[in-house]
Structures are given as structure tokens and as C-alpha cells.
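Submission sheet (multi-component)
Chains listed below:
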Amino acid sequence: MNAALATDSLPDTRWAPPKGVVGMSCLIIAESAIFTIFVVAYLYYLGKDLGGPTPRQVLELPILNSICLLSSSATITFAVRALRKGDAKRFGLWWAITIALGAYFLLGTGWEWRHLIRDKGLTIRTNLFGTTFYSLVGLHASHVVVGLLALLIVMAFSITGSLKQEHADRAHVLSLYWHFVDAVWVIVFTVVYIIGR
Amino acid sequence: MNGTVNTDAISGAPSRLSNAAVDKNVFDHVHSWLVTVDHKKLGLMYIMYGLLFFVVGGIEACLIRIQLAVPNNHFLPPQVFNQFFTMHGTTMVFFVGMPLIFGFANYLVPLMIGARDLAFPRLNAFGFWLTVFGGLLLYFSYIGGDGMSGAGSAPDVGWFAYAPLTARAFSKGHSTDYWILGILVSGLGSIATAANVVTTILCMRCRGMTLTKMPLLAWMNLIMCGMVLIAVSPLTAAQIMLLLDRFVGSHFFDTQDGGSAVLWMHFFWIFGHPEVYILVIPAFAIASEVIPVFSRKAIFGYPVMVGATLAIAFVSLSVWAHHMFTIGMTSTSNTFFAVSTMMVGIPTGIKIFNWLGTMWGGKLRFDTPMLFSIAFLFQFLIAGLTGIMLGAAPFDWQLNDSYFVIAHFHYVLVGSIVFMIFAGIYYWFPKATGRLLSERLGKWHFWLFLIGFHMTFDTMHIPGVLGMPRRIYTYEANRGWGTLNLICSLGAAVQAIGTVFLILNILISLRKGRLAGNDPWDAWTLEWSTTSPPPEYNFAEIPTVKSRRPLWDIKHPTDPDWKYE
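Outcome: structure written.
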């Protein structure tokens, strides 16, 4: 029966999108829905606090942080492009820079939180601003952590020399996730530090 | 399942090989199921897991019905009653409905699109075991829910868990935490599997199978999985917020500190309403495969069916607040959500007419799958009509949170989804096991379940109209609800007996059922071109198709479908 099905075969003109890209896109759609709910909660509770501090009193623009994270989107693109050309050394360099930029962003968030908690007395329990701020920024930061762990695993493969040109597509799929994390930061930055302040 | 399953097949081998399975002992067999990444085994495990919880949730329902059968009854303590309606609802939606639809998607989608597995087999296993783990977490609350304060042993906050019931102050102990975690974990599993199915359908269709030649079951599962990605994630987000509220003292749903109980309602129903369509679209999918085969006609209006499903998916994302008419929204919101709710009726009506159009003039065969499908058509129509009634905001102000609503959504969940799941089980059981289910027991199952269903849920509309609120533990004799509730409860017993016939049928037919052969129903989609049960690699050669009914083309080489499509 199968043989019969296959007998008068058509020319294989189909184009199928790469599985990794589609799978990652699905994850990104689902994650976008999660972030949407947190952003909606942030905007809904904006200015409804029963007590201080307010965003305007305590938040400072994390400019350097944001520059670092956003530029890491460029460096990871350079890295994947290098890997596609088979230039493992250049890939390792750009990949390491990406990790460093991501790690710096994470440290920056840590400093910001330390400052807010110790000097300004804002915790997740303080008021609605604290509740929504730490959960939205924290949700994003946790995605940066997951992204960094994935990047570090690839870095380990790269250092041991087992990462080859044929893995470029997989590195590309991972870079999509990293771009998504960066894009979310643009929205979080706009909502928390521009609209919300 | 029946001992002839071959676990050692080599991908691409010309035929099913070897009797290696014979040499294996029972532990090897169990082991092979536990570690499997095969979509068919995972699909069957999803279905078995869903049926297991169907029995558990059904027992809870029966206990609820015993409690409500007569006025002033004290069969269950009030606290236990609250736990049972919470566990019944949560179980049936998250651990019966979701596993069953994903079971069918898992088993059938690769076979019907001519693929050898899902796109990410290990992710598939991961999603399944997350779902299992979620169900175990929920039921672990009966053991571990006491927590430090010794209060409450199972969640009793209702399946939509409105704030502030879920606040620490009102839900002591850990039962609500197990409810949150169980749903959160199984939701992650659902998202993973949905991503997997979408990728499979978009990337792995066999040669010649363009999107417009894909079986409707695959189309509808594609749309359902897209909805899972968009609609289950908000629930995940809301559950994370609730966890933060309960564990680190944030104030999302804490009205004492400015938080909003209404925001939880919005977040829950942004998930909760599309969820109904997530569950019912796979039921449509099964109907769209079964009805043509047993009417001996191609599906009527294929492109319209796809379009209507897309329209339902799209509109259903903007109807959630019709669950909230009574909380006092603005009249603009009420109007918007009433209108959007009624708009769902248009594409749904189109579908019903298309199924009827398929049957019209067909040579109908009344085998058990078709009987369940026909019952589904009528019941789904009535479910839709009461849905439109409840969609009218003023009508809903009168009947919200009454037994009318319970009757309405059980008409959807049981009368439509469970009936089509049963149809699917009778239809594809021979493919999965190589043996047909008994038609005689099947008809007993069908008629008992049908009579029981109508006794319970037709009757249940009336106490609702008479003002009986949902979730009450008992009621006074002078309300005039007694006889009606007794009929509902007797109907539940008849449904339970019907379900026993299904279980008996499965157990008996696994051993003694008539051998099915590859294609017992003379059907037209690719899963029937391979052996029953299919080998691990599904197809020795990846098929090529030229029309929506590839097996019709083979069986009728002089009059193939592709000449007309």
C-alpha cells in the first residue's frame, strides 16, 4: 500500500521552514503571552499604590545596562555569522562578548535591586509598585539567566572544539531566543522606566 | 499493548520484523513505555492517563450527585463537598480534557500527515511527564495539603479559584499551593507539546501534502495548538503571580493593599474561555474525520471548515468577560462581550451545517463512532443555543452561577467533547491495537451514556431557571428542586454504568476483539495505509499524496479525488 502511494511521486518542490526556527517561534509566542500579562498588570496597577515609594522617587534609567543588553543582540549575530563561515575562533570571541554583555546586564539589575531594597526600602511586599516592578523585571531577568546558561553551554562546546560549522543553525535558533529576551527588554524599559516614571 | 507491539523496529525497514518482543519480560515492557519517545506510545499513555482521571473525576461527580440527590442531605460534609467540586472541575479540564486531546493529537497527527514522529520526540516525552507530574501534584494535596497549620487537605477554592479565596488568610495550609503548582506544571507541558505539534505540522508533512490537502484533523489540531500557545500562557503568568502572593507576600490579588480581585478574574478567563475551544476544536477534528467516513462522502466544504475553525479561534480570544457580566462592568464592555460571544455562533453554525451537508445524501453507516458523532451534532447544537442565551448579558444576570450554567457547559464538555472522545476511541482503537472494539458492548455504552447524559443535563437546566445556585452543599425541601435533582443524580448513575461498559469493552476487546486489519472502516486518510498497530517508524516508505483522500485515490484509480480538487 505504501509502495502504491509512492509510485507516481511528485517532484519535491515543497519548502518547509526549519524545525528549530518554528519550535523557537512557538516558544516565543507563548512567552510573549506571559510577558503581556505581566505588563498589563504593571500598567493596570500604575499609580494605584496605597503608599510609597513611587517609581519617580526611586527609579533611575538603566542606560548603560540597556546598551549592553541590546548590543549583545548584534554580537550574537556576528558570532552566528562567523560560525556559518566556519570561523570557530571568531565565533568564540563574539560569543564570549555576548555572554559578558548579558552578565553585565544581570549584574546591573542586581545592583539596581540592591540599591532599591537597601537604600530605598522597596521590596516586593512594600506596595503595588514593588509587587509589579520586581515580578516584571525579575521575570525578564530570569529569562536572561536561562539565556546565559544556554550560551555558556554552547561556549563550553566551543572551547572544547566540538562546535562545528554544521551547528550554525542550532546556534541561530538559540540566538532567536536571545533576540527575544532583548526585545522584551525594550518593552519592559519603555513600560517601567519611561511610561511608568 | 497486545503483546505483538514491536519495539525493536528499525527506521526504514521494509516490514515489521522479528519476535524480539516475545523474549522480553514484563519489566522490559514497562521500561520501554517509561523511556519511550515514540509519539504513538506517548499518545496512548496520554489517553490512558486521561481515561484514568476521567474515572477519578467521574467518581467525584457521582459523590457530588449523591449529596445533591435529596434535600437536606448530609452524605458529605460541606468542606468535602467544596473539595470535590473543585477537584472534579480541575481534574476534568486539566487532567482529562487536555491529556485526551493531546493524546489524540500525538497519536494521529504524524500518522495522518505521513511523518514518522513529532518534530521533537524528547520534548514530547518531557511534555507528557510534566502533565503526569502536574496531576500527581494536584492529588498529592490529599496527603500533603495539611501543611503546617493542619487546615484543609484538598483545594476547595473552585476550579477558577477567585481571589480572595486563594489568599493565605482564607486558604491555609498547602492545598491551594498544590492546585497552583499542578496546573502550572501541566500547563508548561501543554505549551511544550503544542509547540511540538505546530512544528510537526508546519515542517514534516509528506510529499504532496500541501496545507490545503491536509486532513481536517491536522488543521484543527494546528489551530488548537496555536491557541494553547496564546491562551494557556496567561494562566501560567497568573499562577506565577498567585504563587508570589502566597509565598513572598506580593499584592497582585490582595485587595487589602490595593490589589484587584477582578484582575484575577480577567486573567483567569483570558485563559478560561479559549480553553473551552482548545478542548472542543479537537472534538470537531474527530467529527470531521468520522462523519465523512461513515457517510461514505468527502467532507462538505473543506475550506470553509478550516476558515470557520480559524474564525472560532480568533473570536474566542475576545469573549472571556462574558463569564463576568455580574461583576458590574461598564455597559460598553457588557455590549462588546455579549456581541463577540454571539459572533462565535456564526462559524460554529457553519460547521454544523457542513457536517449535516456531509451526511446529506450519504450512505450512512451506524457504527458506534458514528452514533456518538450524531449525538454530538444535536447536543453541540443545544449547547450552542444555551450559550447564546447566556451570552445575552441581562439573561446572564439572572442565571449566572445557577445550575443553568452548569447544564450549559456540561452540554459542551460532556455532550460534545466526551462524546467525540468516545467516538475517537471507537474509531481509532483498531488502528492502535489491531483489534476492533465490540459493537455490541459499544452500543450498550452509547445508549446508556446517551440516556444518562440527557437525564442529568437536560433536567439540570430547570433547577437553574428555578434559581438553584451552583456550588451549594444542600438545599431545603420546600424549594421544589428535589425531584429534578434526583433525576439528575439517577442520570449520573446511568452514565457511570455506561462508562463501565466502555472499560469492559476495552479490556475484553484487547484480548478477544475481532482482528482489524489495516483499514477496518474503509477510510481515506494515511493512518489507515499502514499496519494496525503501526510499526515504530509508521511508514516503511514516506507516502506521497495528491489529494485530501489519498486512500480513495488508491482504491479508485479510475476516479481519483485529485481530478476534482
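Remark: Residues 1-11 of chain A have pLDDT under 50 and may be disordered.
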